[in-house]
Design goal:
The complex is a heterodimer of chains A (171) and B (419). Chain A is α+β, with helices and mostly antiparallel strands and 171 residues long. Chain A has helices spanning 20-31, 34-47, 81-85, 89-107, 116-136; strands at 65-72, 148-157, 160-170. Chain A has two domains: 16-57, no CATH class; 62-170, no CATH class. The longest helix of chain A is centred in the C-terminal third of the chain and has 21 residues, at 116-136. Chain B has 419 residues and is mainly alpha-helical. Chain B is built from 17 helices and no strands. Chain B has helices at residues 5-22, 39-49, 69-88, 92-110, 121-141, 150-178, 183-186, 190-205, 215-224, 235-247, 249-265, 273-294, 300-311, 313-321, 327-343, 358-375, 381-410. Chain B starts with a helix and ends in a 9-residue tail after the last helix. Classes of the chains: A alpha+beta (171), B mainly alpha (419).
């Protein structure tokens, strides 16, 4: 006999006839997977980025300016950061935001109001961490003597994609 | 949902394969501390370090031992051992919570390094949901260490579908919240994210300047046929498409918003196999489109969940095998295939008996099966798996014929019970 995948009628279960809004709501919450879905969504939104929970914020704020970070020698030409340190390029931005948030709490200044010197303090810390990670991989000798952290803004202006790079921190 | 014992087995087998493939992170990195604890580590650090501490890099660590390659190797094999019980369906009220915690811990350490990582969130949450389902069933229904009954099998699949589709659904809230409800109007700017992601992918492994391409440059390319001498080959199509999308904002909005619409309505797949198949395929197309547009950003672990719990590959396998009405022959086929996979170790030229242990060989077969989708490098896929497939097929056929003829003499025909 082949397995019967059709939903089964359970003859001895009581028949539910929800009447009215509240009873309908109770039926949908208690007798369907909506309960689990609701609980899961609420927990995920409340906890945010706390593994294994996440609110999956990728591409959630598509502004008219996007930015990415690179590390380079003094010439400003981007280096292959993952190959050299094991840290991927997108992670540098995440590390910057996390460190900036901590530093912001410490000095009681909003990260968006940081002066270039305060940004450089955060940047120096990142460069130092990256050197340590390169050292773990045995690639510290492949890094230039003086590293710098760059931030590149991408905009679409006058029919052109424009990329503007600024140096955040230098060793 | 109505899940047959065979489908339940394939669900557990494929999900275990995916889990083994995903648990391979922390042993590769230098993670000497937990500077920005998340999840379980956040709770532990708050208890141990106090609530006011913001920088935990100098505090006592809890999970950094998982970054030791030798210890992680032992840990991974313990995880594989636990999953063997999971696949067999034995002692699930103990095995599933244990497997769930074991899967969560390495990624918690990895995500506590000042950068969030949500690539494995969905797959870890599915495991957690299955663990909670089994515990609920054990406490309020029936505590059993035997393979799951029909009700539990149905629950486990249903709750897995809730998590898979719910993860997409939750991301819609994040989009609306972070963009102050203006995501749809601003979605044409996702084209700038394409450029950004392309640059990031480039600077992961390459050195050098990336030329900027404008509309005028594009016209030049079209008119005089400038080739990749000045444009990086992989970057070029991304720039062309992104530029075109930026020039056509409404087309971009419709295109990108369709993805969010899919993330919103995919919850309709819960509990319905046909809709699950439709939304599963749509989500795979959605992921692949993002990967192509962004120049290499895929969520392979999420895609594996889509294949297993929405598209229903386990259901397809079970349904096909259940066309064989004789249950002994069916079981012989499965056991024969399993023995065939193991036997392929002794005559696989690339990673067989000559080069590795049996356990590592089976692990590498698993990595090829689940990892090829992730890397999308199909060049050596069939070359590597051909001996395994041939051996499994030979084992399955030999066992099935043996049982068929032997049973013809000794047993009356046995059929399956649907309980």
């Amino acid at each position: 006999m082949v397995y019967d995948y059709r939903p089964k009628m359970i003859s001895d279960s009581p028949t539910i006839h929800p009447v009215g809004f509240l009873q309908n709501a109770r039926f949908w919450l208690m007798s369907t997977p909506l309960t689990a879905l609701l609980v899961y969504c609420l927990i995920s939104i409340y906890l945010g980025e706390n593994f294994p929970f996440s609110n999956f914020p990728m591409y959630s704020n598509p502004g008219a300016e996007r930015m990415y970070y690179t590390i380079s020698a003094e010439d400003g030409i981007g280096l292959p950061v993952q190959t050299l340190t094991g840290v991927t390029s997108p992670k540098i931005g995440k590390i910057y935001r996390t460190k900036a948030a901590k530093y912001s709490k410490k000095i009681n200044v909003k990260a968006s109001k940081f002066t270039p010197a305060q940004i450089a303090t955060v940047g120096q810390e990142i460069l130092s961490d990256l050197r340590e990670k390169a050292s773990y991989l045995g690639r510290e000798n492949q890094l230039p003597a003086k590293l710098q952290l760059n931030r590149t803004w991408i905009t679409y202006t006058g029919g052109r994609i424009v990329e503007t790079t600024t140096v955040l921190a230098k060793e | 949902m109505n899940v047959s014992p065979l489908e339940g087995f394939f669900l557990r087998l494929l999900f275990a394969g995916a889990l083994i493939y995903t648990i391979r992170v922390t042993g590769q990195f230098n993670l000497p501390n937990e500077p920005h604890p998340v999840g379980l580590l956040k709770i532990l650090h708050r208890l141990a370090d106090g609530p006011g501490v913001t920088d935990h890099s100098q505090c006592r660590t809890w999970l950094t031992w998982l970054a030791d390659p030798d210890k992680f190797e032992i840990y991974r094999w313990c995880f594989v051992g636990v999953l063997i019980f999971y696949v067999a369906g034995i002692a699930l009220p103990v095995v599933l919570p244990l497997a769930s915690v074991m899967h969560i811990l390495p990624y918690t350490l990895f995500g506590s390094q000042e950068y969030n990582f949500h690539g494995a969130s969905m797959i870890s949450l599915v495991l957690l949901a299955q663990a909670l389902t089994v515990l609920y069933h054990a406490i309020f229904q029936k505590c059993s260490f035997k393979p799951p009954d029909a009700k539990l099998r149905g629950w486990m699949l249903l709750q897995s579908m809730v998590i898979v589709t719910g993860a997409y659904f939750v991301s819609v809230f994040a989009k609306m919240e972070n963009s102050d409800g203006e995501w749809f109007m601003n979605s044409n700017n996702v084209a700038l994210d394409m450029i950004k992601t392309d640059r990031q992918t480039y600077f992961n492994q390459h050195r050098g300047p990336i030329p900027v391409i404008s509309s005028e440059d594009l016209k030049l390319v079209r008119e005089i046929g400038i080739t990749d001498v000045i444009f990086r080959p992989k970057s070029y199509p991304v720039q062309v498409v992104a530029t075109w999308l930026l020039e056509h904002p409404w087309t971009s909005r419709i295109l990108f918003s369709s993805g969010v619409l899919l993330e919103t309505v995919c919850i309709l797949a819960i509990g319905n196999r046909i809709l699950a198949l439709f939304f599963g395929l749509s989500l795979i197309a959605f992921h692949r489109s993002i990967d192509a547009l962004m120049g290499g950003v895929a969520f392979p672990f999420n895609e594996l969940c889509d294949f297993i719990f929405l598209i229903g590959i386990p259901f397809g396998l079970a349904w096909t095998l259940e066309r064989i009405k004789n249950i002994r022959v069916r079981h012989a086929l499965l056991i024969g295939a399993g023995i065939g996979v193991v036997a392929s170790y002794w005559f696989h030229e690339k990673t067989g008996a000559a080069t590795s242990s049996l356990c590592n060989y089976l692990l590498s077969v698993n990595y090829v099966i689940f990892g090829t989708w992730s890397s999308q490098d199909w060049s050596g896929f069939f070359e590597y798996l051909n001996p395994v497939i041939m051996s499994a097929a030979a084992g399955a056929l030999a066992a099935a014929f043996a049982v068929h003829f032997w049973q013809g003499k000794k047993f009356p025909q046995t059929t399956e019970s649907t309980s």
